[in-house]
Amino acid sequence: MSEAAIRSSATTNALLASLDPLLRAWLPRQRWFAGKGRPVDGFDVLAATELLPPGRELGLVHLLVDAVSERSSDCYQLLLGVRDALPPHLAPALIGHVTEGPLAGRTVYDALPDQALARVLFERLRSPGRLGVLRFRRDLEREIPGDLVPRPLGAEQSNSSLVYGDTFILKLFRRVVPGVNPDLELPLALARQGCDHVPAPVAWFSAHPEPDADTPENTLVLGVLQPYLQGAADGWDLALRELAKGQDFQDEARALGRVTAQVHTSLARALPTVTLGRAQLRALADSMTARLDATAVAVPALRPYAPALNTAYEALAGLADEGAARRAQRVHGDLHLGQCLRSPDGGWTLIDFEGEPVRPLAERRVPQPAVRDVAGMLRSFDYAARSTETWAPEWAEHARSAYCTGYAEVAGRDPRTDPVTLRAYETDKAVYEVLYEARHRPDWLPVPLAAIDRLASNGSTT
Question: Does the N terminus or the C terminus of the chain have fewer Cβ atoms within 10 A?
Answer without folding.
Answer: C
